[in-house]
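Structure tokens please, single chain.
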Amino acid sequence: MYQKSNGQKGFSFMRWINNAEPNFARDAKDDVDLSLKQQNDLFRWQLLQANPALLGEKSFFIAGIVGNESQSPQLYRNLLKNGVLNPETGVIDTSKITKHFANQLATISVHQQRKLVGMLFFWEEEVMRWRLLDEEKGEILQAMEGVDEGHADLDVALKVVEAKKTMPPSMRDQDVAETDLPAYTSR
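Here you go.
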């Protein structure tokens, strides 16, 4: 059962079979993370927007969550309505993804819902990464104000931060980030 645009309930055999038997879905059941290509496509699309941190109506189509462009605005409106997306700040509130999430987004299959959750967490990480890079840029600019001459190192650091901000996920070294994390010592 799903809710039609006029508020009535409707039945779709394909939705039912996709939700009852997830292996009928186009992708593998366990494949809920965005592929590197989907991450790159979304990242590059968002860089073209006026405010790249804000997910837009077309973002879900670009990321491959929905199969056609007309479903993307409807999904965007549902996420705004349920509070998962904040329209002013662009903050993704993952605490709003509750046990009722499947019913709130009944217009897409369960597999697409899983991919959507993966996309939302991926984008939340990207926005946090940008925030940290902006803070680093601010610190560099502040340090440059205090030095009159000889801040070539700071100029290079500023260019590196700007390059990191526009670097797509496929160009980043994933292994370095994982090996630099602190770990508990074994006893």
